[in-house]
Design goal:
2 domains, two-stranded antiparallel ribbon, two-stranded antiparallel sheet, alpha+beta
């Protein structure tokens, strides 16, 4: 291993492949050398000016009356949120809980069953839906990788 004492960074022996984004030796580990990453775009998931119970959260109500829609209704009940309000009418704490979860155990009904689950937030629910093979490409945007800033290489290669 080599090291730079000035910037306190250590790295492996450099070789030509260290400067190729087509090689695991040089490619940014975060974006795999693409320079961009796809991530959920909140503006595509949520319409802040539509009442919550009228489809404001597109990723949930796109699968109308789904498990997640029932869970959402339970979340609103448990947290005293009026689902007739728009997202932009909620306070910051309510907005954050809705988007990112707050650990609240919520009770809700789904297919004749009473369930109790923690509220994970809209963002995590969208990722869960993606894992279940539901197409979320309409809710995603391509953004420059924050690790390599679009340069496609590892930090050690970029620092030379």
């Amino acid at each position: 291993h080599k090291a730079c004492f000035k910037c306190k960074m250590s790295f492996e022996e450099l070789e030509p492949l260290s400067f190729s984004f087509n090689s695991p030796k040089g490619a940014c580990e975060s974006c795999l050398g693409l320079g961009t990453k796809f991530s959920l775009d909140i503006s595509k998931i949520l319409d802040p000016n539509t009442p919550l119970n009228q489809g404001a959260i597109k990723v949930i109500f796109g699968y109308n009356r789904s498990y997640y829609a029932q869970m959402f209704e339970g979340f609103c009940e448990c947290n005293g949120i009026d689902s007739a309000l728009c997202f932009n009418e909620l306070n910051k704490e309510q907005q954050d809980a809705l988007l990112y979860g707050n650990g609240t155990e919520i009770n809700f009904h789904f297919k004749n069953s009473s369930l109790k689950r923690p509220w994970k937030g809209i963002i995590q629910i969208a990722y869960d839906m993606f894992k279940e093979q539901k197409d979320l490409s309409d809710y995603m945007s391509e953004k420059t990788c924050s690790s390599c800033e679009g340069h496609r290489l590892k930090a050690s290669s970029l620092s030379v």
